[in-house]
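Thanks for the sequence, V.! I ran EF-hand domain-containing protein right away. Repeating your input here for the record:
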Amino acid sequence: MNMARKGVGKNCDIIYVKQEPIPYTMEQLRGMFWRYDTNRDGRLSRKELKEAFNCLGSSIPGWRAHRALNRADDNGDGYISEEEVDELVSYAFKLGYVVK
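Predicted structure:
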């Protein structure tokens, strides 16, 4: 449950209010993936994808990276290029990752 501190009530008790999870937008996901292009070659490797999915909160980031490559790597070179990233973002968006 995502809780945010709202304030202090009577007797100095902290009051927490439940916050609904906020889904990532497609632009946020795009930025998240490119943040993990650690060698700045303009392509996302399986290792970089695994790290990105781990940051997004995937319980199985290696498998997600594998599935993302199968889905978005149109030319089969083992990387997600700038031309292929839209399909990757669409895949991740459909999985419903939320800001924590």
